[in-house]
Specification:
Blueprint lengths: L2 H17 L1 H62 L4 H84 L2 H14 L4 E5 L2 E2 L8 H9 L4 E2 L6 E3 L2 H7 L1
Parallel strand pairs: 1-4
Antiparallel strand pairs: 1-2, 3-4
Helix pairs in contact: 1-3, 2-3
Length: 241
């Protein structure tokens, strides 16, 4: 086999090994992102529950203030009744007292209702806080796992990049440039085998003349259909001999 072709085959395999890390990295990042999203969703629920609890407490405080004002109003009304001069004034004071009592009743009912809301929300908050702790622990665990995995991948990639650099220095730079141009669009299929007289990149059948060139392997041969660099695997060469 042509020396340069053999070098490109080895370089292509090395590049594929490097690029094979990408889906592993993406999968790890997605796994971490899912756990982070789960924890953040729970944190948002907690924030919402805290807002509802704060709102209920504010309304209870507001109604308690109303009760205080209405109670003072009723006390003042009783004092006024003792000093009233006419029946008309008495009826007016009694109407004010009845209205104040209705408002007091409503305020007390609302306070009771909001206390029930607080009980429900406090129970929900306790449950969701438990979920948050669990989700945070899961995230921490996955974060450590992913960090170790990515660190291991980085170490392996550094080794492969070192090997790649050694190979690219040894390869004729014109041939390397030719390979890199094809790799821009073909990625890990820049150099492909020929099987059953077809290019394994575009899967188009080669004519007899082109196939004969690949078999000889005297020169670097490209697919006449797609432009990828072609080679015949050793076992295929033996079968053609």
């Amino acid at each position: 086999m042509n020396k340069h072709l053999n070098e490109l085959i080895e370089l292509s395999k090395l590049d594929k090994s490097i690029d094979d890390f990408t889906p592993l990295i993406v999968a790890s990042q997605k796994k971490l992102a899912r756990r982070t999203e789960k924890r953040d969703d729970i944190a948002q629920k907690i924030s919402g529950l805290n807002a509802e609890i704060e709102d209920a407490n504010m309304k209870i405080g507001s109604f308690e203030e109303q009760i205080k004002v209405l109670s003072e109003q009723l006390t003042l009304g009783v004092a006024k009744e003792k000093a009233v001069g006419t029946e008309r004034e008495m009826k007016a004071l009694q109407m004010e007292a009845e209205l104040a009592k209705e408002k007091l009743k409503f305020a007390n009912e609302e306070i009771e209702r909001h206390h029930k809301i607080l009980d429900v929300k406090a129970s929900e908050l306790e449950e969701v806080n438990g979920e948050f702790v669990k989700a945070s622990q899961e995230l921490d665990k996955v974060s450590i796992e992913v960090s170790k995995k990515l660190s291991s991948i980085d170490e392996d990639k550094i080794k492969l990049f070192g090997k790649r650099e050694t190979k690219t220095i040894a390869i004729d730079q014109k041939i390397l440039s030719f390979y890199e141009k094809i790799r821009v669009w073909a990625r890990n299929t820049a150099v492909v085998a020929v099987k059953k007289q077809a290019c394994c990149g575009c899967f188009m059948k080669l004519n007899d003349s082109a196939y004969a060139e690949v078999i000889k392997s005297d020169e670097i041969t490209t697919c006449h259909h797609c432009g990828r660099i072609l080679y015949l695997e050793p076992q295929s060469i033996q079968s053609q001999a």
